[in-house]
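[agent] plan:
  1. take the single chain provided in the ticket
  2. run structure prediction with default settings
  3. attach C-alpha coordinates to the ticket
  4. add a short note for the reviewer (M.T.)
[agent] executing step 1
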Amino acid sequence: MNTDEKYEARIKSMQEYTYDWQPENYDDPSKPILKVSKSSLVGAFAWCPKKYEFSYIQRLPQDQTEAMRKGTVLHNYREDFFNEFDIKKAEGMNNSEVIEYCNSLMPIDEYFDISLTVAAFEAQRFIEARTEDKIDEYLPIVNEGKFDCIVTIPKNINPKIPLQRDYKIHLQGIIDRIFIEDNGLIPFEYKTGGWKDTKTSTMRQEMAFYQLMIENSEEEVLAKHGLNKDMKVTHWGWYYPAANYVFVEEIKKRSMTALMHNFAKLIHAYESKNFEAKFWQQTCSQYCSFYGICPAAQDNTWL
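[agent] step 2 finished; step 3 output follows
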Protein backbone atom coordinates (compact mmCIF):
# COMPACT_ATOMS: atom_id res chain seq x y z
CA MET A 1 0.00 0.00 0.00
CA ASN A 2 1.53 3.35 -1.05
CA THR A 3 1.42 6.55 1.01
CA ASP A 4 -1.67 8.01 -0.67
CA GLU A 5 -3.57 4.74 -0.21
CA LYS A 6 -2.65 4.71 3.47
CA TYR A 7 -4.09 8.18 3.93
CA GLU A 8 -7.24 7.28 2.04
CA ALA A 9 -7.67 4.24 4.27
CA ARG A 10 -7.17 6.38 7.34
CA ILE A 11 -9.85 8.85 6.32
CA LYS A 12 -12.30 6.10 5.43
CA SER A 13 -11.81 4.52 8.86
CA MET A 14 -12.37 7.92 10.55
CA GLN A 15 -8.92 8.11 12.12
CA GLU A 16 -8.14 11.16 14.19
CA TYR A 17 -7.09 14.64 13.22
CA THR A 18 -5.86 17.16 15.73
CA TYR A 19 -4.54 20.65 16.43
CA ASP A 20 -1.89 19.10 18.71
CA TRP A 21 -0.05 17.79 15.67
CA GLN A 22 3.51 16.50 15.30
CA PRO A 23 4.79 16.77 11.70
CA GLU A 24 7.66 14.39 12.48
CA ASN A 25 5.06 11.61 12.84
CA TYR A 26 3.50 12.34 9.46
CA ASP A 27 4.61 9.06 7.86
CA ASP A 28 2.92 7.00 10.56
CA PRO A 29 -0.68 6.34 9.39
CA SER A 30 -1.72 5.57 12.96
CA LYS A 31 -1.00 9.16 14.02
CA PRO A 32 -3.51 11.99 13.53
CA ILE A 33 -3.08 14.55 10.78
CA LEU A 34 -3.40 18.30 11.22
CA LYS A 35 -6.88 19.71 11.68
CA VAL A 36 -7.57 23.22 10.38
CA SER A 37 -10.72 25.28 10.71
CA LYS A 38 -11.51 28.71 9.34
CA SER A 39 -11.47 30.16 12.84
CA SER A 40 -8.16 28.56 13.76
CA LEU A 41 -6.33 29.66 10.60
CA VAL A 42 -7.90 32.93 9.44
CA GLY A 43 -9.15 34.01 12.86
CA ALA A 44 -6.48 32.97 15.36
CA PHE A 45 -3.24 32.11 13.55
CA ALA A 46 -3.34 35.01 11.10
CA TRP A 47 -4.05 37.38 13.98
CA CYS A 48 -1.31 35.98 16.24
CA PRO A 49 0.45 32.59 16.02
CA LYS A 50 1.09 32.64 19.77
CA LYS A 51 -2.62 33.07 20.45
CA TYR A 52 -3.21 30.10 18.14
CA GLU A 53 -0.75 28.01 20.17
CA PHE A 54 -2.37 28.96 23.48
CA SER A 55 -5.90 28.41 22.22
CA TYR A 56 -5.73 25.42 19.88
CA ILE A 57 -2.63 23.44 20.86
CA GLN A 58 -2.46 24.06 24.61
CA ARG A 59 -6.26 24.51 24.78
CA LEU A 60 -6.07 27.18 27.45
CA PRO A 61 -9.46 28.66 28.45
CA GLN A 62 -10.49 32.02 27.01
CA ASP A 63 -12.73 34.68 28.49
CA GLN A 64 -16.30 34.47 27.20
CA THR A 65 -17.18 37.98 26.08
CA GLU A 66 -20.53 39.59 25.39
CA ALA A 67 -19.56 39.76 21.72
CA MET A 68 -19.15 35.96 21.65
CA ARG A 69 -22.53 35.43 23.33
CA LYS A 70 -24.19 37.88 20.98
CA GLY A 71 -22.67 36.16 17.97
CA THR A 72 -23.89 32.74 19.07
CA VAL A 73 -27.43 33.95 19.79
CA LEU A 74 -27.83 35.88 16.54
CA HIS A 75 -26.41 33.04 14.45
CA ASN A 76 -28.99 30.73 15.99
CA TYR A 77 -31.77 33.21 15.20
CA ARG A 78 -30.72 33.44 11.56
CA GLU A 79 -30.53 29.69 11.20
CA ASP A 80 -34.00 29.38 12.71
CA PHE A 81 -35.34 32.09 10.39
CA PHE A 82 -34.54 30.08 7.26
CA ASN A 83 -35.74 26.85 8.82
CA GLU A 84 -39.13 28.42 9.63
CA PHE A 85 -39.65 30.64 6.58
CA ASP A 86 -42.66 29.34 4.60
CA ILE A 87 -42.27 30.17 0.91
CA LYS A 88 -45.85 29.25 -0.03
CA LYS A 89 -47.24 31.36 2.81
CA ALA A 90 -45.13 34.40 1.91
CA GLU A 91 -45.80 34.10 -1.81
CA GLY A 92 -49.44 35.19 -1.40
CA MET A 93 -48.66 38.19 0.81
CA ASN A 94 -48.40 41.82 -0.24
CA ASN A 95 -45.14 43.66 0.47
CA SER A 96 -46.23 45.01 3.87
CA GLU A 97 -47.36 41.58 4.96
CA VAL A 98 -44.02 40.07 3.92
CA ILE A 99 -42.22 42.58 6.14
CA GLU A 100 -44.54 41.81 9.07
CA TYR A 101 -44.07 38.09 8.48
CA CYS A 102 -40.29 38.36 8.54
CA ASN A 103 -40.47 40.46 11.72
CA SER A 104 -42.65 37.79 13.36
CA LEU A 105 -39.95 35.17 12.85
CA MET A 106 -37.51 37.14 15.01
CA PRO A 107 -37.42 36.71 18.83
CA ILE A 108 -38.01 39.81 20.94
CA ASP A 109 -35.00 40.26 23.21
CA GLU A 110 -32.03 42.58 23.79
CA TYR A 111 -30.89 42.00 20.20
CA PHE A 112 -34.24 42.81 18.60
CA ASP A 113 -32.87 45.95 16.91
CA ILE A 114 -30.40 43.87 14.88
CA SER A 115 -33.04 41.20 14.31
CA LEU A 116 -35.36 43.82 12.81
CA THR A 117 -32.58 44.94 10.47
CA VAL A 118 -32.10 41.34 9.34
CA ALA A 119 -35.87 40.88 8.94
CA ALA A 120 -36.12 44.00 6.77
CA PHE A 121 -33.20 42.82 4.64
CA GLU A 122 -34.73 39.37 4.14
CA ALA A 123 -38.16 40.82 3.39
CA GLN A 124 -36.71 43.05 0.69
CA ARG A 125 -34.70 40.15 -0.72
CA PHE A 126 -37.85 38.02 -0.92
CA ILE A 127 -39.83 40.81 -2.59
CA GLU A 128 -37.09 41.24 -5.19
CA ALA A 129 -36.88 37.47 -5.78
CA ARG A 130 -40.64 37.34 -6.32
CA THR A 131 -40.52 40.28 -8.75
CA GLU A 132 -37.71 38.63 -10.71
CA ASP A 133 -39.46 35.22 -10.63
CA LYS A 134 -36.58 33.72 -8.63
CA ILE A 135 -38.38 32.61 -5.50
CA ASP A 136 -36.84 29.16 -5.91
CA GLU A 137 -33.44 30.77 -5.19
CA TYR A 138 -34.56 32.66 -2.08
CA LEU A 139 -33.90 30.04 0.58
CA PRO A 140 -30.32 28.82 1.02
CA ILE A 141 -29.58 25.35 -0.26
CA VAL A 142 -27.39 24.94 2.85
CA ASN A 143 -28.25 26.46 6.24
CA GLU A 144 -25.48 26.08 8.86
CA GLY A 145 -23.92 23.14 7.03
CA LYS A 146 -21.04 21.08 8.44
CA PHE A 147 -18.29 20.25 5.95
CA ASP A 148 -14.98 18.44 6.13
CA CYS A 149 -12.41 17.32 3.60
CA ILE A 150 -8.77 16.47 2.99
CA VAL A 151 -6.54 18.79 0.97
CA THR A 152 -2.88 18.59 0.03
CA ILE A 153 -0.57 21.52 0.75
CA PRO A 154 2.42 21.29 -1.64
CA LYS A 155 5.77 21.94 -0.02
CA ASN A 156 6.55 24.85 -2.35
CA ILE A 157 3.09 26.46 -2.37
CA ASN A 158 4.56 29.49 -0.56
CA PRO A 159 7.89 30.37 -2.22
CA LYS A 160 8.95 32.37 0.83
CA ILE A 161 8.38 29.47 3.23
CA PRO A 162 9.29 26.11 1.70
CA LEU A 163 8.06 23.15 3.71
CA GLN A 164 9.86 19.90 4.38
CA ARG A 165 7.38 17.95 2.23
CA ASP A 166 3.84 17.91 0.86
CA TYR A 167 1.22 17.54 3.59
CA LYS A 168 -2.34 16.32 3.67
CA ILE A 169 -4.45 18.23 6.19
CA HIS A 170 -8.05 17.94 7.38
CA LEU A 171 -10.32 20.97 6.90
CA GLN A 172 -13.45 21.20 8.99
CA GLY A 173 -16.07 23.84 9.64
CA ILE A 174 -19.62 25.13 9.48
CA ILE A 175 -20.69 27.31 6.55
CA ASP A 176 -23.39 29.80 7.55
CA ARG A 177 -25.31 29.69 4.30
CA ILE A 178 -24.87 28.56 0.70
CA PHE A 179 -27.21 30.01 -1.90
CA ILE A 180 -27.53 28.88 -5.50
CA GLU A 181 -28.02 31.28 -8.39
CA ASP A 182 -27.85 30.40 -12.08
CA ASN A 183 -26.41 27.00 -11.05
CA GLY A 184 -23.50 28.67 -9.23
CA LEU A 185 -22.92 28.26 -5.50
CA ILE A 186 -22.61 31.34 -3.29
CA PRO A 187 -21.31 30.74 0.26
CA PHE A 188 -22.49 33.60 2.46
CA GLU A 189 -21.08 34.60 5.84
CA TYR A 190 -23.06 36.29 8.61
CA LYS A 191 -21.16 38.56 11.00
CA THR A 192 -22.62 40.24 14.09
CA GLY A 193 -19.85 42.77 14.74
CA GLY A 194 -19.08 46.10 13.11
CA TRP A 195 -17.80 46.50 9.58
CA LYS A 196 -14.57 48.16 8.46
CA ASP A 197 -13.19 48.14 4.92
CA THR A 198 -9.93 46.78 6.36
CA LYS A 199 -11.77 43.50 6.99
CA THR A 200 -12.20 42.82 3.26
CA SER A 201 -8.98 40.84 2.84
CA THR A 202 -9.74 38.65 5.86
CA MET A 203 -13.30 38.05 4.69
CA ARG A 204 -12.08 36.95 1.28
CA GLN A 205 -9.74 34.41 2.87
CA GLU A 206 -12.60 33.10 5.01
CA MET A 207 -14.72 32.66 1.91
CA ALA A 208 -11.83 31.03 0.03
CA PHE A 209 -11.62 28.55 2.93
CA TYR A 210 -15.31 27.75 2.40
CA GLN A 211 -14.76 27.35 -1.33
CA LEU A 212 -11.88 24.95 -0.70
CA MET A 213 -14.00 22.86 1.68
CA ILE A 214 -16.95 22.69 -0.69
CA GLU A 215 -14.93 21.77 -3.75
CA ASN A 216 -12.85 19.11 -1.96
CA SER A 217 -15.60 17.42 0.06
CA GLU A 218 -16.44 13.80 -0.69
CA GLU A 219 -19.62 13.02 -2.62
CA GLU A 220 -21.36 11.68 0.47
CA VAL A 221 -20.68 14.91 2.38
CA LEU A 222 -21.98 17.02 -0.48
CA ALA A 223 -25.04 14.81 -0.93
CA LYS A 224 -26.09 15.43 2.68
CA HIS A 225 -26.45 19.09 1.74
CA GLY A 226 -28.09 18.59 -1.63
CA LEU A 227 -24.86 19.35 -3.51
CA ASN A 228 -22.72 17.43 -5.97
CA LYS A 229 -19.28 17.63 -7.56
CA ASP A 230 -20.61 19.37 -10.67
CA MET A 231 -21.63 22.43 -8.64
CA LYS A 232 -18.95 25.11 -8.40
CA VAL A 233 -18.55 28.19 -6.24
CA THR A 234 -18.86 31.22 -8.53
CA HIS A 235 -19.41 34.04 -6.01
CA TRP A 236 -19.19 34.66 -2.29
CA GLY A 237 -20.49 37.30 0.07
CA TRP A 238 -20.97 38.52 3.61
CA TYR A 239 -23.54 40.39 5.66
CA TYR A 240 -22.91 42.72 8.64
CA PRO A 241 -26.39 43.78 9.84
CA ALA A 242 -25.06 46.04 12.62
CA ALA A 243 -23.55 48.21 9.87
CA ASN A 244 -26.28 47.38 7.34
CA TYR A 245 -23.48 46.20 5.05
CA VAL A 246 -23.96 43.50 2.40
CA PHE A 247 -21.34 42.52 -0.17
CA VAL A 248 -21.27 39.92 -2.96
CA GLU A 249 -18.58 39.41 -5.58
CA GLU A 250 -17.11 36.85 -7.95
CA ILE A 251 -14.53 34.56 -6.34
CA LYS A 252 -10.98 35.94 -6.25
CA LYS A 253 -8.13 33.63 -7.27
CA ARG A 254 -5.65 35.77 -5.38
CA SER A 255 -7.58 35.19 -2.17
CA MET A 256 -7.22 31.44 -2.64
CA THR A 257 -3.50 31.94 -3.27
CA ALA A 258 -3.19 33.98 -0.06
CA LEU A 259 -5.09 31.27 1.83
CA MET A 260 -2.74 28.54 0.58
CA HIS A 261 0.25 30.65 1.59
CA ASN A 262 -1.20 30.90 5.09
CA PHE A 263 -1.61 27.13 5.28
CA ALA A 264 2.13 26.92 4.58
CA LYS A 265 2.87 29.47 7.31
CA LEU A 266 0.84 27.45 9.78
CA ILE A 267 2.54 24.18 8.89
CA HIS A 268 5.96 25.84 9.03
CA ALA A 269 5.21 27.01 12.58
CA TYR A 270 4.57 23.37 13.51
CA GLU A 271 7.72 22.23 11.72
CA SER A 272 9.88 24.80 13.49
CA LYS A 273 7.89 24.57 16.75
CA ASN A 274 7.85 28.35 16.80
CA PHE A 275 4.57 30.23 17.15
CA GLU A 276 5.70 33.82 17.25
CA ALA A 277 3.69 36.45 19.07
CA LYS A 278 2.40 39.52 17.23
CA PHE A 279 2.09 42.22 19.84
CA TRP A 280 0.14 45.48 19.76
CA GLN A 281 -0.23 46.97 23.23
CA GLN A 282 -3.67 48.53 22.91
CA THR A 283 -5.26 45.74 20.86
CA CYS A 284 -3.78 42.83 22.81
CA SER A 285 -4.52 44.30 26.25
CA GLN A 286 -8.18 44.80 25.30
CA TYR A 287 -9.01 41.75 23.22
CA CYS A 288 -6.64 38.87 24.03
CA SER A 289 -7.46 36.49 26.88
CA PHE A 290 -3.80 35.46 27.01
CA TYR A 291 -2.34 38.94 27.52
CA GLY A 292 -1.23 38.10 31.06
CA ILE A 293 0.87 35.10 30.00
CA CYS A 294 2.08 36.21 26.58
CA PRO A 295 5.89 36.58 26.55
CA ALA A 296 5.70 39.46 24.08
CA ALA A 297 3.32 41.34 26.36
CA GLN A 298 5.54 40.71 29.38
CA ASP A 299 8.63 41.92 27.52
CA ASN A 300 6.87 45.10 26.48
CA THR A 301 5.68 45.78 30.02
CA TRP A 302 9.20 46.85 30.87
CA LEU A 303 9.66 49.24 27.93
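[agent] step 4 note for reviewer: The longest helix spans residues 112-131.
[agent] ticket updated
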